[in-house]
From TrEMBL:
UniProt cross-references to PANTHER family, sorted A to Z: OPSIN
Gene Ontology BP term (one): visual perception
Protein species of origin: Podarcis siculus (Italian wall lizard)
Region of interest (Disordered), residue spans: 324-353
Compartments in which it is found: Membrane
InterPro entries reported in the protein's UniProt record: GPCR_opsins, GPCR_Rhodpsn, GPCR_Rhodpsn_7TM, Opsin, Opsin_pineal, Retinal_BS
Protein name: Pinopsin
Keywords from the named record: Chromophore, Disulfide bond, G-protein coupled receptor, Glycoprotein, Membrane, Phosphoprotein, Photoreceptor protein, Receptor, Retinal protein, Sensory transduction, Transducer, Transmembrane, Transmembrane helix
Membrane-spanning ranges: 33-59, 71-91, 111-129, 149-169, 197-222, 248-270
Membrane topology: Multi-pass membrane protein
């Protein structure tokens, strides 16, 4: 009887495993878990609404079914999957204080969130590179046909799958991270397998798309500045250049705010085994990256005049007529299609949509 009591006291006093019961007060106060649950609940509602609208409106209005919008819909689908498999599960787990769905679901969540998150990252890179090709014309008068858009979307899923399957096959693993209420690649246990995978993932699925985005938008801005300098007398050109500059800054800043903390944090912890990090702090970059599912459609889609006109038309149940300006937008609209047209006075004529 005494031995049994001693065993019970030992179990009661030890820190429970991530799948056994509430992690408070062992890892963080209960209020921390509740706060994260509230954040994830807001993300689930907002991301489901805005990304759902992107898909519904794109399907309903034929004029939005342009090749470039295929990539935007691909981004919305990826964001919805991140919301369903990541934010929703995290919301439930944080409300309970531990990962209630078990180890198998943990591994599946880690895989799906990584897969769809990387699809979103590379979708943003493809959008940026397409704009670079159209505006800067490094390969001549480039057009973005449906075939290229489909290949681009297929690439995002194929590339992501290649780099997210290895943890399921033994190269690193998907485990509970931080507060143990969400799962991701094992960046904190150390070891050659985990460290090599994290560094590879950092290069192939963060550094490469980020470099593509920075290269594309830097060249785009330089081209627009050159055109604007040649057309100083045209107010529309100057206004377009200022609007595009603000849009590019917003896009790059949102990308870095959402993903740089998580990628950098994982790399630092993976390469500094003795670094002590509080669980709540360790979870923050992961949860913050999930908010990208809300920012992406707002920046890349809702700021598109053509899409916005269709959205307002749908929300007004058809009572708002689409104007000719809405149906045939001209010039540069960074969230949508970028265009330039030749003019006698300059190499490129730029006008805002």
């Amino acid at each position: 009887m005494q031995a049994s009591n001693a065993s019970w006291v030992e179990v009661r006093n030890r820190t429970p495993g991530p799948f056994e019961g509430p992690q408070w007060p062992y890892l963080a106060p209960q209020s921390t878990y509740i706060s994260v649950a509230v954040l994830m609940g807001l993300v689930v509602i907002s991301a489901t609404l805005v990304n759902g609208l992107v898909i519904v409106v794109s399907v309903q209005f034929k004029k939005l079914r342009s090749p470039l919008n295929y990539v935007l819909v691909n981004l919305a689908v990826a964001d919805l999957l991140v919301t369903f498999f990541g934010s929703t599960i995290s919301f439930v787990n944080n409300a309970q204080g531990f990962f209630i769905f078990g180890q198998a679901t943990c591994e599946f969540e880690g895989f799906m969130v990584s897969l769809t998150g990387i699809v979103g990252l590379w979708s943003l890179a493809i959008l940026a590179f397409e704009r670079y090709l159209v505006i800067c014309k490094p390969v001549g008068d480039f057009r973005f046909p449906a075939r290229h858009a489909v290949l681009g979307c297929a690439f995002t899923w194929g590339w992501s799958f290649v780099w997210t399957v290895p943890p399921l096959l033994g190269w690193s693993s998907y485990v509970p991270e931080g507060l143990r209420t969400s799962c991701g690649p094992n960046w904190y246990s150390g070891g050659s397998s985990n460290n090599s995978y994290i560094m590879t993932l950092f290069v192939t699925c963060f550094a490469m798309p980020l470099s593509t985005i920075l290269f594309s938008y830097a060249n785009l801005l330089m081209t627009l500045r050159t055109v604007a300098a040649q057309q100083k007398e045209q107010e529309t050109t100057q206004r377009a250049e200022r609007e595009v500059t603000r849009m590019v800054v917003a896009m790059v800043a949102a990308f870095l705010v959402c993903w740089l903390p998580y990628a950098s944090f994982a790399m630092v912890v993976a390469t500094h085994k003795d670094l002590a990090i509080r669980p709540a702090l360790a979870s923050l970059p992961s949860y913050f990256s999930k908010t990208a599912t809300v920012y992406n459609p707002i920046i890349y889609v809702f700021m598109n005049k053509q899409f916005r006109s269709c959205l307002l038309y749908k929300m007004s149940c058809g009572h708002r007529a689409l104007s000719s300006q809405d149906t045939t937008p001209a010039g540069i609209s960074l969230p949508g299609r970028l265009t330039t047209s030749a003019s006698k006075g300059s190499r490129n004529q730029v006008s805002p949509s």
